[in-house]
């Protein structure tokens, strides 16, 4: 009833039922997991995916691969990744399935793993994010380490070796992890960026050496003090070639297998998401042919370089950026495509899901955009802060338009841009999607398998 009421009110009903059930029955999550296992039988695999950046995309890729293998999947595809959303997903799993696939918020992960007792735990990365909610990154890492030490013997850990923090977490587990990471020929940088979140060794405190850096603090690292070094990856990211902002060629090797995959997303960080998805898929015996066919059909999760078709034939690009590393990588990716957009909308908001303190933008590197993007429309709930941040990266005052109303900012972008591109924090992305849905241009996040409403023209300057 709560779910129906939520959907009638224009929401997704993806969390409220779980919130209510958790109040009525505190052990609901463990009980629902047992129910799903009984209904599905011994062949069921339960997989959880967590990371600061990329968990939604990685889980969506895995879901596409599983579908390619003909598996019946239960998946929190709307992105409701807190305990309440996971409870709702399991409540809705009323028929036998082959795979329960759950993306899980990084702070929620230890509790969820304890209650679910999953077959596979996949760990992507740990970056600074929402300090007012999570605290310092060390707090999340310590909770993950305690979780790893208490994993049951049947749980397999799949982890990205290139993140020193994640590697230290996985090393705490009783069983050896399956490692994914960059290959020896993958090009990268020679120095850590200013926003890097792992500079010293967890064991001895010595400054880490990096032979090469790929994304944030992810790279081929070692400690000259105690001799710790990056674990040897069994699944390697061997090569990346960006064709345009909508696709790239990714080569992944695993043992004697070489997978050449076309991914409908740009950016090295998305290639890392694919790498982790492939490593997990292999761990649950999804055939290589199904991995390839699944990725061929895969399309971007909502807001993650997602394209929205407009009535005039253009396609609006929505890009989520929610922390220093994410925003830096988005800026680098947009700058490196063959034809970067000259006009970009940047929406900075400070809702609870964003973090109420927007000062994190000062730790991001926006400079790659400066030679290519000549005009920026700053919007969201903190547009002035975003405009000031852009000014410090070299944009002239007349090149920055400050528009507090997100609907009006969208209209400004559509008036000026042939290839309209939006970079948004999380709650700004939700607001923009509500505007697009009211205009008939997009469906809700929880309606991914339903066709959008018929397109209609917006009113001038339509407000959120």
Describe the protein.
By secondary structure, the chain is of the alpha/beta class. The chain folds into 2 domains: 13-297, UDP-N-acetylmuramoyl-L-alanine:D-glutamate ligase, CATH 3.40.1190.10; 304-447, Alpha-Beta Complex (Protein-Tyrosine Phosphatase, Chain A). Helix content is 34%, strand content 20%. It has 15 helices and 17 strands. It has helices at 2-8, 16-24, 28-40, 55-68, 83-91, 109-116, 131-134, 137-149, 164-170, 268-283, 288-297, 324-336, 383-392, 406-416, 426-438, and strands at residues 45-50, 73-75, 99-103, 120-123, 156-160, 178-182, 209-215, 218-222, 235-244, 247-254, 257-263, 304-309, 315-320, 343-347, 375-379, 400-402, 421-424. β9 (235-244) and β10 form a beta hairpin. The protein is globular.
Structural class: alpha/beta
Straight-line distance between termini: 28 Å
CATH architectural name of the largest domain: 3-Layer(aba) Sandwich
Low-confidence stretches: 448-464
Q: Which topology of the largest domain does CATH recognise?
A: UDP-N-acetylmuramoyl-L-alanine:D-glutamate ligase
**Silhouette:** globular
Fourth-level CATH superfamily of the largest domain: Mur-like, catalytic domain
